[in-house]
Every structure is written in structure tokens, then in C-alpha cells.
Amino acid sequence: MADPVRIYFLGGLGDIGRNCMVIEQDNRLLIIDCGLMFPDSDMHGIDLVLPDFTFLRENKERIVGCVATHGHEDHVGGLQFLLRDCEFPVYGSPVTLGLAAGRIEEAGLLDRTRLVAVTDGQRLDIGGFDVEFLPVTHSVPHAHAIIVHTKQGVIVHSGDFKLDLTPVDGRRTDLARLGELSSTVGIRLLMCDSTNAEEKGHAPSETSVGSVLRGLFHDHRDRRIITASFASHIHRVQQIIDTALEQDRRVALLGRSMQRNVRLAIDLGLMRVPASAFIDAEKISELPPHKVCVISTGSQGEPMSALSLLSRGESKWLKVGADDTIILSSHAIPGNEGNVNKVIDGLMRAGARVVHSGVADVHATGHAQADELKTYHSIVRPEWFVPVHGEYRHLRAHAALAVQMGTDESNVLLAEDGDVLLLDDRGLSFHAKVPSNYLFVDGIVGDVGTGVLRDRRVLAEEGVVVVIATVDGARGEVITGPEIITRGWVYAPEADDLLDEAEDTVRAALERALRDGVRDIDTLEREVRRATGKFVNDRTKRRPMIVPVVMET
Fold first, then answer.
1. Would you state the torsion angle of the CA atoms of residues 435, 437, 438, 443, taken in this order, to the nearest 10 degrees?
2. pTM score, two decimals?
3. CA of 35: how far to CAs of 19, 72, 439, in Å?
4. Which residues contact 450 (CB under 8 A, 6 or more apart)?
5. Does residue 14 sit in helix, strand or coil?
6. How many CB atoms sit inside 10 A of residue 519's CB?
7. What is the CA 543 to chain-centroid distance, rounded?
8. Is 47 buried (19+), middle (13-18) or exposed (0-12) by CB count in 10 A?
9. CATH assignment of 206-355?
10. Which CATH number fits domain 5-201+365-441: 2.30.38.10, 3.60.15.10, 3.40.50.620, 3.40.50.10190?
11. Domains of the chain, residue spans
12. What pLDDT tens digit does each residue of the chain (553 aa) get?
């Protein structure tokens, strides 16, 4: 009997983001991706959301490395946080490592890792793991599927991919190698991208966006054109620059990440742009509108991004007006729709014309749609299948597609974050659980915990009531107060009668407790909190945060 293999899911199942999983073999751990997730609107004050690294921290001596499928933040953005507690090498394409290295360097943690560049089709021994890097097409250059040759057979992690037959760089998903593995040794387990499993048909080719952009540039040839795209979408940025140069426009890059990624792509030979094409941001206003193309960050409506600043009239480089056309060459990530709409409204209020994916085909997804996934399954023909990378509905849809394409329904497992799967001679089964909570990052504070987030939610939705009183413990009397200070519960000048009644109610409760012989301050504060909370809920049907402050003379 061959030794079993375990798969740990730490993030990415049920969410778009926080992608992180671990394969265990021979008591060694190989990490596949270590990403982050951007917060939802109800995560007040939170900057980033990470996977729960408890399992990895507790077993850090067993980690042999991390293989990164590609350079998007939801796959490599968590490395800088994990490397604070663990040391291990990171493997990926030069582009992937270049995008990941920026954040790791900013955190001062480059000395805690070794960045190992790999090539398409390369097969490496990583701490006892036989790992193959298969080229796939995605919305960032040089993405990979990860093939792990284990004692329990071949495990394929698809990475994020689509089947683009006419990619900008000519680098297609290597279906031939997948077919070779399937027809020879067989694929024991497939874990596959589920993002667009509900979308029928095929994803449009990235090259199709180029023709749309050329048409828009022609239609708006007498105007200044400002585009916004993901800074990591190198091929999209290349097409925008090519189109601008065809119209004899100079190109200005707004946003630090856009400038950094374009510089990286040029250094790696992934972009071909003459140096004379670029102008500094401060010179934008010196050129006529029809001679300028601005490429900006902020396609997701991030509040402090370059495009958001433009929409609010706060950019120090230029003011948006009636001579501007804004092209949002992207699609809003679920949860970001409100921010994106706010930016669009702001740009339109300033007089600009705005073109987005709702009115023109200015974006092509980087994730395979249903018919592409069917093709993928027909080639791979896995014995076992686990859908990954998506919300629960996406995972369910992908599971149904797998069954439709011939995988036995009993061999399709719907896993969740925290699940541990065991792959042994008998097959694949649920084995155990590991911690998988959200890890919230707030600025430099680090993990603020669910308790803090819950408090912030209460403060945002219900407000706060502070009750201050002074007592004489020796005589058992209330000396001053209670005084009630409120924020976000009721507007004090218009609620004097209600606040007076609240103070009388709390004072009566406090005096009653003192008459009963209560002198302990903590106990008195609990009584104040109870009385205040009951009054507030009875009279207003609200549950604000109650902060009692009882002082003793």
C-alpha cells in the first residue's frame, strides 16, 4: 500500500480570494498559493482578509516551499504575512515572483524566503515533491497549473485559467500535456477553477478587447482618453498602449502599482514599448487632449486609487472635464459594484464620458466558462474531482458539470475552507478539520479579531451610549450623574426628554443596587449597562453599544 496524501484547504472555497491550500506527503508540506481577499462593505475599517495560518504556523518546520500559480493578489498577496512567522522558498514564473516580491520587499521579508523562477513545463523536486509547472492562459502573463506527481497518483491544480485560442502572447493552456498524462498515468485528482462555472459558452479572447479599444479610440479621437485596468493585466495594458501609439498619443501612467508593473513587464521583455511613448504625469496638461492617453489604477473603485481621486476632483495631476473619455477596461469584482458605480457617477458629474463593460465589450474574463470547463474535463478525465476557487454556488455548478462530463457523482467532493481530504488506496475522503477563520488586517495593527469587527459593526449600525456616574461607596449614594453621552443612537438636541428619562431610569437602578449593598464597581457597571440597554431597546428598538463608567469617591 502506498502512503496516503492529505490536502488541506485554508482558503478560497466559498469566497473569491484568500486562495491557499496545502498538500502533505511523507510528513512534509507543500503550499499552493497564499493569497488575500479584499474586505466586504460590512468589514468596517478592515484593509485585508487573510487565510487562517494557524495550521501552517504550528507546522512551519515541515513546510518545504510554496508554489504560486500566478501573481494576482488573491494568490500571492498573503505571502508577506505568512513569512513573518515562517521561512520557505517560493516557486513561480518570473512574472509571478516579480509581482509577489513587491509586497514582500515592502514588508522587509525578502531575507526570509528564496524566490525560485521556473519555466513552462519545468519539473522540479521541491523538498521531496515532484512538481510540474504547466502553462495556462489567464489575465496575467505566465500563469501555471500545478501538477504534483505523488505516491497516490497525479494531482492537478488547474490554477486560474481559460482556453484562449488567440492569446495576445501566443501562450496557450497546454491541453496536450494534460491529455498525455490522462491517457498514460491517469489523473487521480483534479482541483479546478470554478469562477465562471455558471456562465454558458466560452470566454472571449483577450485579443477581442484590442479591436474594441481601437474602435473607441477612433470614435473619441479628438478627446483625451483615460483608461483604467488591473495593474497586473499586462496584456491589456499593452493593447491600450499600442492603440494609443497608433493615434500618435503619449502615454501617462497613474498609480504606483501601474508604474511598477509596467516597468517589471518591460524589464522581463513581456511588453514592447519605446521609451519615448511615456510622459510624466505632471506634463499631461501641457499636451492637447487628443495627444494624451492616461492609464490609471482604480478599476475596482478603490477609495484612494488614482481613478477615485480623479472622480472626486482630488488628483494633483489633472482635472477631469468635458474633453475627457474614461474607459473602464475591467469588470467589477463581486462586492465592489457600489464603489465602481460611485466612481462612474463622479466622473460623469465632472462632465466626462464614461465607457464601461455594461455598454461595450471592453473586458474579457480570465476564467474559463462552462463550455471551456467541459472541454477541460473531457481531456483530463479525473478519477476524483474537487471544485475550487469560487463562491459556493460556483462550486456547486462546477460539480454538476464534472458529473455531466463523466466523473462518477460519488467521486465529486464539495469541500469547504478548513476541510482536510485524505487520498489513499481506497480513494478520496473527508478526514479532519483545521482552523479556517478569517484573519482580519487593519493597517499596521495586524489581526484585529472577530470581536473588534463585531464591535465596529455595532457602532456603525446602532451607535454608542456612554453612561457616566460617580458614587460614594461609604454612604451608598449617587454623587453625580448619571450623564448620558450618545453618538449614532439619537440626536441629543432633539431628544432631551428621552435622554432625561433614560438618566432617571439608570439613576434609579444604580440607587437600588447601592441600597442592596452593592459596592463593587464592576457589578455596578454591569447594572448600569443592563438598565441602560433595557431602556434603549424598549423605547427605540435599538441595540447600541453601552459603555458604563462608574467612578467612586
1. -70
2. 0.82
3. 5, 8, 12
4. 437, 438, 440
5. coil
6. 13
7. 32
8. middle
9. 3.40.50.10710
10. 3.60.15.10
11. 5-201+365-441, 206-355, 463-552
12. 789 999 999 999 998 899 999 999 999 999 999 999 876 665 555 668 899 999 999 999 999 999 999 999 999 999 999 999 999 999 999 999 999 998 899 889 999 999 999 999 999 999 999 999 999 999 999 999 999 999 999 999 999 999 999 999 999 999 999 999 999 999 999 999 999 999 999 999 999 999 999 999 999 999 999 999 999 999 999 999 999 999 999 999 999 999 999 999 999 999 999 999 999 999 999 999 999 999 999 888 888 889 999 999 999 889 999 999 999 998 877 667 888 899 999 999 999 999 998 889 999 999 999 999 999 999 999 999 999 999 999 999 999 999 999 999 999 999 999 999 999 999 999 999 999 988 877 654 455 455 555 655 666 677 888 889 888 877 888 888 888 888 877 665 656 778 888 888 888 888 888 888 888 888 888 888 888 888 888 887 888 888 888 888 7
What's the distance, CA 510 to chain centroid? 49
Starting at the earlier edge strand, list the strands of the sheet with 187-193: 123-126, 129-136, 143-150, 153-157, 187-193, 384-388
Phi-psi category of 546—alpha, beta or left, where left has phi over 0 and alpha has psi -120 to 50?
A: beta
Place of cell 481530504: 421
**Residue 501 grid coordinates:** 428619562
50 burial type by CB count under 10 A (0-12 exposed, 13-18 middle, 19+ buried):
buried
Q: Classify domain 463-552 at the CATH topology level.
A: Ubiquitin-like (UB roll) (3.10.20)
Those residues with Cβ within 8 angstroms of residue 524's Cβ, 6 or more apart along the chain or in another chain? 471, 510, 513, 514, 518, 550
Roughly how many angstroms between the first and final C-alpha of the chain, as a whole number?
76
List for the chain the helix, strand, coil content (%; round to 5): 35, 25, 40
Helix (H) or strand (E) holding 262: helix 256-267
Looking at residue 40, the DSSP 8-state letter turns out to be P
Q: Residue 317 and residue 304: Cα distance in Å, rounded?
A: 14
Q: How far is CA 228 from CA 100, 326, 327, in A?
A: 22, 8, 6
Check if the beta carbon of residue 169 is closer than 8 Å to that of residue 270: yes
Say if CB 383 and CB 186 are below 8 A apart: yes
Q: What's the rounded Cα separation, in Å, for the pair 549 and 312? A: 41
